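## Example pair
The file below holds two records. Each record gives the amino-acid sequence first, followed by its structure token line.
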Amino acid sequence: MEGFRVDFVTADDKPDWRPLFDGYAEFYKTSITDQIADQVWDWLLDPAHELEGLIARDQRGKALGIAHVRACPRSLAGGYLGFLDDMFVAPEARGTGAADAIFSRLSKLAQERGWSALRWITQHFNERGRGFYDRYTGGPSDFIVYQLKRE
């Protein structure tokens, strides 16, 4: 998207990434400790780890959003899809095209890597995000997500 740059995170991006990651956690009413944030950051910088991070910036270089994505095996297709674990755009940047820029980059990444699809989940209360996602997908998939929590 014009006016935005979406790149893989580098070690220099941590001061810009962390407030966005904290904002993402706050949106989902989750506490992020320094230990958790440092672990995720280490994953994002480790080329051997499957999780990769993208950061969106405006023309002035201000960080506006993040996405964390990874390849996920798709056994019935004998290939891979991309799984978007996390995506967050700063509240002041919503509606500016920053989210579209992230999705454009994710779509190109999926094509470059031969992923058959890009998949993600969101909470039912994320109405604005769901409206955005619906523009790209036409609506939610037919799948229902279950989670077995550890006691």
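Second record, same layout:
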Amino acid sequence: MEVVIVEAMDPALPGIGGGETYSLNLLQYLIKIGVPTVFIGSSTSNSQSTQSSFTFVPVTHKASLSNLGFVLRLMATRSFASVPPGAIVHVQRPEYALPFVLFCRRNPKVITLHGRILHGVRLKQPRVVAWIYRMVESFCLRHSSAVIAVDEGTKGFYEKEYPWLRKRIRVIPIGIDLAKFRVLGRAKSRAKWGFKSSQKIVIYVGRLEIEKDLGFLIESFRMVVRQVPEARLVLVGDGRDRKRLEEMAKDMGLEEVLFIGAQQPDSVPEILNCADVLALCSLFEGSPTTVKEALACGVPVVTTPVGDVARVVRDNINGRIVPKDTEKFSRAIIEILLSEDMASVRRQCVKGATAFGFDQIGERTVDLYKKLLT
């Protein structure tokens, strides 16, 4: 068995997005179990490199590239020529499969759907662009060997959109690196990142994009800080919505909202360990990695009912799942910040995260690969 992973990232310098985390964890798992692996992605270096443990084929050296731009680079660099005969090609967005559908017809192709991608395109792009995207997505999905949805909601969305997909799609949730995301010294982490021991830290980790609905979070936090003056909202990440959100917080007079930008993935466990609660309020999600990572660090979660969070967050045990209402959302955050039994809550968080170690998820993915090769 050989596997080719395709994702618009540099495995040496991954971001904090769910797809990138998934790809890196999958790569590390395949290396661990001895599966020869090729990674086709992007790089900040200037040459194709063969690592001691996997082959890396960069198709671009641009730090930031649109999804369409990445597909065009896959075509222009003839990345498909790097695919060994019989190898499984595993892509992280439907359109990334296009060059391999066209030029690697005999290779099994697996597409992972990290949420309702088509819905996001319809939300952010003009109608004609969304129509063209759907045509490409449909073509790639139809010519795939297997499709993985990271949660039941995503599976249901695509089955409704493409009824012929029902026999080919299955759910395998996202796993996390439990050796990396764990409880660390909280006082030491706070001192390193400049947070006071008396502060109550509400944290968000992820992209600052319109579908994350962070304006809702800032509005909710305004109600939190009125009752908990020592509260701080820390937004970890970057994106196209950052400027608007910064202006929004400024207009509200919320100096307690801190934008610390994108951070190296190795720093994220430390930052999470500074937090008292993680907040998530996206318009849609698949299997949000950050929820599981926060729990593994002993941080309870307040979230709206998106993606597979109901499988992960146990209401009033390791967090709260609340409707999309600023008053209810802020109240849930306040209740956790002022809880007198945080030690017990943190233990429940860690306990709840143990089922989502990537070894279990990786094993299910490899089992799928084996079935495609038989």
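Notes on the second record: The radius of gyration is 21 Å. The CA atoms of residues 222 and 254 lie 7 Å apart.
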